[in-house]
UniProtKB/TrEMBL annotation:
Belongs to the plant acyltransferase family. GO terms for molecular function: hydroxycinnamoyltransferase activity. Gene3D superfamilies: Chloramphenicol acetyltransferase-like domain. It comes from Leersia perrieri. This is Uncharacterized protein. InterPro entries: CAT-like_dom_sf, Plant_Fungal_Acyltransferase. Keywords: Acyltransferase, Transferase.
Amino acid sequence: MPPQLRRRFEVSVTSRTLIRASDPPPEFPAVLPVSNLDLILGSFNVSLILLYPAAGFPFPAVAAATRAALPSFLSRFFPFAGRVVADAATGIPEIACNNAGAELVLADAGDVALADVDFADADTSFGAIQLPYEQGVALSLQLVRFKCGGFSVSWGTNHLLVDGHGLTSLPNAWAELVRGELSWEPRHERRSLLRPRSPPRYGAALDAEFTRYSPANLVNPLLAAALVRRSYVVSAADLARLRAAASTPSRRATRLEALSAHVWKLLAAATATTTTPDPNCRLAWLVDGRRRLDPTKFNTYLGNVITYASKEAAVETIAASPLADVAAMAGAAIGEVFREERYQELVDWMEIHKTEAYGDGGGGKWTETVGIGTGSPAMVVSAFVAFKVDGDFGFGKPAVVMPWVRPGRLGSAAMTVARSPSEDGSWVVMARLWPRLADVIDADTEAVFKPATAERLGLVRRCKRGGDDVAAVARHASRL
């Protein structure tokens, strides 16, 4: 790898502006309560990073078009012009729809082109592009200029407002509105969709799935900091090969099941080589429940409709079993929670426990136990491959779409899997790994996970002479 691809780079903020909705919807509630499902994952910042290679448009035109379109976008997505606050009486977070304004952040990567960035090191690439923002901000829209015409757009929000479906809906809606008219209406009201039963009820096993997110229950910060972030590309050919190996005449595995089975085997191999090996290891998945619930209500709903599925198995069993058997285990674990009753139980569970976490100085929230990092080694897989992102708001489609989360003190391993916007069948993977697991992935003879170079991501473009063309800015702004 050429030396320049390993460089660290600094992104400097050139402006940070609050943009308000131009036409707030009449009679919109001043406070939008969140649902019990929103509280399952809780309040933390999440971003969706879109990378655009050089396409002949100067950055001032991109910034001008964004600034011009944002007020009308916020009028349709009004909660994102507000703030996440805590109810004064209960401490439970809610959304103040006060039109305080979304952040529009313009920034510059200096003399660094997207082709120069070592995307295999996620912390020094994606981590440098996505700029921190206050947790209360409902939308931080960040544009970063790169040398040679490339740029990034980061959609930063709070997980209370969106899950993966909702997060990827934002740039799609933005592109539709800029190009013409929105083909669907977002549903913002949330608590009436899944009401707790009276009295609330759930299976006793659900209690073990959650742990308080508080310092006493988390791995120490130095241990959490020991995890490394890597980005990979998995080609369509490798996915097809894994799927064929993971399928049988009686059962055709999905591509996610096939990749999960391969990851599970890598995790088992890493676990077996530790100084004090654990006999078991776990895989977990974030599962979107929309297909099991009423599509007329949930297809345009941006809030959280997700839950975890997890499965623990013996390391020896995972290592010795054919890929098809491990894929079937993954499919069975996901299928177990892919039912409407599961989501109703979650609503009821949170109804009983939310005050315990947020109220009376509770000092935290609930989180899924499997993500904490204690017990047998666990890998959490978050799949965005079902969500197609257009993202063309007048400057071409992005080459990369990748969610980004700063994990705090969670100590489990994690993989986020997203589809390539090129629609060539390849996937891009963001992974948080223990160094030993990263070594096992790098040494894998099947080489399924290939380092995410700028070339593999479709970000290599030739630099053009002359810099930004002022006349081109005016021409493009007039078309928008």
